[in-house]
User: Which sequence fits this backbone?
């Protein structure tokens, strides 16, 4: 499963790195980005929580 953040949709609220800091961080533009290519083993629930917590649906995990 690969996490990603749509930079055009992201509003930089910071929810995803607070929910899943092992998968997301904030860049210099104040927007979130994925810091891993694959969701770490055992953290699939955190990835899904980040997806569901994003207020603008900018996060996907495929």
Assistant:
């Amino acid at each position: 499963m690969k996490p990603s953040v749509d930079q055009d949709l992201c509003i930089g609220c910071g929810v995803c790195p607070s929910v899943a800091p092992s998968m997301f961080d904030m860049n210099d533009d104040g927007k979130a980005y994925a810091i891993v290519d694959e969701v770490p083993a055992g953290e699939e629930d955190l990835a899904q929580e980040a997806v569901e917590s994003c207020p603008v649906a900018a996060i996907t995990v495929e």
Summary: The radius of gyration is 10 Å. The longest strand covers residues 3-5.
